[in-house]
Structures are given as structure tokens and as C-alpha cells.
């Protein structure tokens, strides 16, 4: 067998593989705006602090602005041999303005530079995710508005449990998304500190003004410890975690839409723009968008696990492993943004079959708890009532009937406390009885719906 030492072609392939292994340009080039913004703020600070001349700073800023325009226009000469976005921009700056470009990296390391770039991205992405969450919440409120008095079976263990308002069901997802928005806001806050001035790990031996750079970049403050600053990726974990939980919520909603749109349920018809046909079965309306939302949640959660495993064994301070922090972050943000936009359109265009939902609630045993509560109202302990109604349910099911189809004599055989009022128990009376804060009574759902609208409006006003 020929060794690579004696095979020039194999050696070249090995050398190219080694070079490609370290390249991050194919994904970190999307940070060009953040990288240029950080460099411009840094150059201006260096001039203010008289670390470089005002003329040098002006030349650097002008050159960086022209490079940003080149990249935006698609005219930038990317070079994979320069590995990453930072070196590509720096090399191009030398070509544009000459040797004065070398002054830009004064009092700065790629370690604090890339951390600041990623923080700028994470902060902006978190705010964009909040906006997308609000759109999805608005779609849920749109449907809830039309279905306050639509009765649907509520489920536990995927078995019909008690009747609820469809609006109440939809508002449960509004609450989940509201918590997601809070997590995204927390992630934005975690990213909202500048690491510039931390240098490679120990700080810099120049009279830099870290606070002014942070303010120029829109950060709320600066990091407190240079070693922690260049190695910290908690803010990235926070954002990936927030996207993971959000995707889990979207996956749960997608799962219900998938089930509810089946012939067996028939509770909802998905909008034509969110289904597809079959390559062989002409009658099919497959809920592809909901299925993909459910499927993509796994990848986002996987990104969280990958990021945590990358960080778990790293000694202080910077290690090249941290280059692996970005692909999963970018993918998680992109996937979650896409899923949120799909879900808001999917929910808004859905058509719920109120009649079918009500028939499903009525053709079941969802009133069993209310019948037990009826006995409690007549003085029977709940556990005893539970046993009696459980036996009645078995009796009805065994004869192919529902509880409302039992005769009064059959009820009275189970307990003399039953009278004709037991037949006044309906899905509507059941819903109305849950008249507690957070309950499914129609009046409570209307109140909750108005409160949700007010919260959403307030959040939108605050964002603007």
C-alpha cells in the first residue's frame, strides 16, 4: 500500500481536507453586517481615545462601508482560504484602503470580535422571533373570537374527558406562545452585553472605552470578566433553548391539527395552501406543513443538545470548539421563524367544524364528572359518587348506549339520590359550570379572550 508521503495527489487531498475542516465561511458569512458594525464602532472608539488617528479611522470606516455595500450587492470576492467572515473582510479592507487597514485590529482579538458579532446576531434574532410569535398569537385569537361557544371534547390520555370551549382550547396555545415570547426576551437580554475590549482573554493594554463601543452598538452594557467574556456562550444556549421550547409547542399544535383533520375526527379542514395531494391517491389532502412543523422540532432540540455537548468540557478560555456554536444557532433561529410563520397562516386559514365537534362531545361519556358532581351536590362524598358513575358508564357502554340514554330507573337503581334533574346535565351546562378564573365557562373564556387581546396589543405597542 502506498503511503501519502509517496503519493503527491493523496497528500494534496489530505492538505485540502485539513484546510476545509477549519473553514467556517460558508455559514458565518451571514454575520457580515454585525462584523462590520462592530469594526466601525471599534475604529471610531480608537480614534476618540487617540489610539489611532482620526484620519485612519475615517479611512477604515469608509472602507468598511464600501465592503458592506459590495457584500449586499453580491459583488464581494469571497475567499475560502481565509477561513471566516472576519479574515475575509479584513483582507478586503487591505485591498481597498491599503496598510492603514492594519490599525483596525489594534486592541482587539478575533475572540472578542466573534463573540460580539454573535451577540449582536442573537439579540436581533430573538426580537425577530418575538415578532413572529405575536403573529401566531394573533392568528389564534382570530379563530378563538369565532369559537367561544363552539363545544369540543377535551382530552386526557387521548380519551374524551370533559367538554370545553374551542376558544379555551386555542387560548391554551396562546399562553404557551406568550411564555415563548418571554423566553426570547430573556435570551435577548442575555446577549445584550458587549465583549469588545476583552481581547484574546485577558483584556487589552490600551486605554479603550468599552462603554462607548457598547452604546454605539446598542448594547446595554459590557461584560465583567474578560476570560468569561470570550468563552461564554450561555446567551447562545438561551436562545437555542427558547427556540426548542417554542418548537415543542408548535409541534403539539401541529399534532392536534393533524389528528383533527383526519376522517376519524373531522374537526378541522386545513387551508388548501397548507396541504398537499398524494402522488397516487387522488382524494388525499395531506397536512404536510403541520407534519413538517412537527418533524423540524426534533432538529432544533438536537441543536440544543449539540451545543451543550460542545460546551460541557471546555476549559477556560477560548477553544476552537466554539466555532461549532453558530450553525446550530442559525439553523434553530431560521427553522423556528419559518415554523412560526407557517403556523400562523395554517391556523388563520383553518376551518373548524363546530357541528362535528359538538356531536363528538355529545356522543360520548364526557358528562360523567358532571353526574358525579350532581351526586356531590346532594350530599354524597365525591369518591363514592365516582364509583357509582363509573359503574353507570360501564353499564351504558356495555349496552351500546351513552349516559343520557339510560333511564331514570337505571339511575335510581345506582343511587336513590338521582331524580329527573340528571337529564338537565348537558355539554352546555357542563361548560357553564366551570365558572372559575381560568375555566372554560363561556363568560370566562370571553374575559380571557379580551385579556389576551389586550396583552397582545400592549406587547405590540411596547415593541414598536
Give an overview in words.
The chain is mainly alpha-helical. The chain has 3 domains: 13-103, Orthogonal Bundle (Fumarase C, Chain B, domain 1); 110-205 and 224-359, Fumarase C, Chain A, domain 2; 368-425, Orthogonal Bundle (Ribonucleotide Reductase Protein R1, domain 1). Helix content is 63%, strand content 4%. It is built from 18 helices and 4 strands. The protein has helices at residues 8-21, 25-28, 32-48, 54-73, 85-97, 110-146, 166-191, 210-216, 226-231, 234-260, 288-311, 325-349, 354-362, 368-377, 382-398, 408-414, 427-433, 442-463; strands at 151-156, 159-165, 268-269, 351-352. The strands form 2 sheets. The chain has a two-stranded antiparallel ribbon. Strand 1 (151-156) and strand 2 (159-165) form a beta hairpin. Helix 7 packs antiparallel against helix 10 and helix 14 crosses helix 15 (382-398). The protein starts with 7 loop residues before the first helix and ends with a helix.
Name the descriptors:
single chain; 464 residues; mainly alpha; Fumarase C, Chain B, domain 1; Fumarase C, Chain A, domain 2; Ribonucleotide Reductase Protein R1, domain 1; two-stranded antiparallel ribbon; 18 helices; 4% strand; elongated
Task: Briefly say what this structure is.
It is built from 18 helices and four strands.
